[in-house]
Write a structure and sequence with these properties.
Length: 100
């Protein structure tokens, strides 16, 4: 079985910091806030800006999701990631034996 990788997945693997901006309505605001955080010299103010950034990031992700028009996106978020598992008859036999 061949695994396929999208351009977005490849870019994300090379630049993990981009994850915060993907699917986020406030991505541009996050970028501006990052510049303020990097230039801030007062540690207390910097820590507060980092907290504000995390809140803005979460709010932007939720806002993006609420604006997603397709039901598949909403359903996928609700269901989450499911892992495939190959089962054999032996797996069923063991489950049946343990139930008794």
């Amino acid at each position: 079985m061949q695994e396929k990788t999208t351009l977005g997945q490849l870019l994300r693997s090379q630049r993990p910091e981009l994850e915060d901006f993907a699917c986020n309505l406030y991505g541009e605001d996050l970028l501006r806030l990052d510049f303020f955080i990097e230039s801030e010299t007062d540690s207390k103010t910097r820590d507060q800006l980092i907290v504000e950034r995390e809140l803005l990031k979460r709010e932007g992700e939720i806002a993006w999701l609420m604006n997603a028009a397709d039901q598949i996106t909403h359903l996928s978020v609700k269901v989450g990631l499911r892992q495939k598992r190959r089962m054999t008859w032996k797996d069923f036999d063991q489950k049946g034996a343990n139930d008794e």
